[in-house]
Write the structure tokens for this entry.
Amino acid sequence: MTATPHPHDYPDVALRAEALESLLLEKGLIDPKVVDGLIARYQNDVGPMNGAKVVAKAWTDPEYKARLMANGTEAIKEFGFTGPQGEHIEVIENTPDVHNVVVCTLCSCYPWPVLGLPPSWYKDPAYRARIVREPRKVLSEMGLDLAEDVAIKVWDSSSEVRYFVLPERPANTEGLDEEQLAAIVTRDAMVGVAKVSGP
Amino acid sequence: MDGIHDMGGTQGWGTVTIPRDEPVFAEPWEAKAFAFGALSARLSGGNLDAMRHAIDRQHPYDYVVDGYYGRWLGCVETQLISSGVLAPGAVEARARTLRGETVAEPADPSPNKPDYTPTAGGSLRTVDTAPRFAVGDSVCAKTLANDGHTRLPRYVRGHVGTVTAIQPAQVLPDTHAHFIAENAQHVYAVAFQSSNLWGDGAEQFTLTIDLYDDYIDPA
């Protein structure tokens, strides 16, 4: 444990990041191309659009959905979505009677291959602290009011298992194809703090 | 360790709101902190659990003030200092130099990477023994007096829940983070009724958490 907090004139995080980079470059420990590649990958290529494709396929293809519920990791891999924080992904399904919501109280574990890096609210102490204690109230603050008879299940990602929520398909979407459905699936619905609204 | 990171159930943080149209990285330095964090286990000879423990060890005040990617930055520094890649104070000194102060930068330390080789990549392992518990068994989360890393949060300790699934076996973070041993073992999804955790006046819900075999006793 660091014995004392940083003093008031301690260099700020942006400057410390620059300092760390300069030290690592000087020692030849990092390759700028690797650093830029990692950043670009998680800024552009890995994000909730991946999870949305999985959800849209599960909504339209019952055989895929069965594979996804039986072995999330393998079914997600069919899309080529793999990588860190995706060693074992378990899919939990929201229904009219059961609402699932995911948290990591100890840090901010999140299923990167399908959702990318976590949004700020997921890492916020308020979310991490309170969703395991008063989820109905927290969800309501976040804009999701659940009926009293809906059972709430909260999943705390404490091991290397990552939880991914399969949201309910909204009504009046029968005419939409897989691609159109993927376009309406949101990140927040795949964590369980929102529902998917129709087009 | 019972640090600031163990936030489950703590109170006073205020409301949760979802910012709209949030970028992946709010500032360019956050992107750099992310990349260095992603590379940190390789640079320090560590592993994911050691990285998490390095985050948990940030001073509680800095943990909150520095924010998520600030903690990543801090944990990279902590890991690189532990493994003798950077000297204590090296990042601060360089940062002060960058902002125009005249400071002496510390000499390079002797390498001190952990003498520890995992048996495989990742955290999942195969375990030959049968699971100690079955789906439906009542188990009690242990109480712990642990100064090191653990993934058993305070809010479930001492409480009784029900095993709902047997998860893939995994290395035990408590020993893996400290380069002692993998202690690969069974992991169980354990469901707790909210009233067991927070009392009769609590909202009604089920809390499921994955608990390593070492974390639980028969109830």
User: Anything to note?
Assistant: The radius of gyration of chain B is 20 Å. The longest strand of chain B covers residues 160-170. Chain B is about 30% helix and 15% strand.
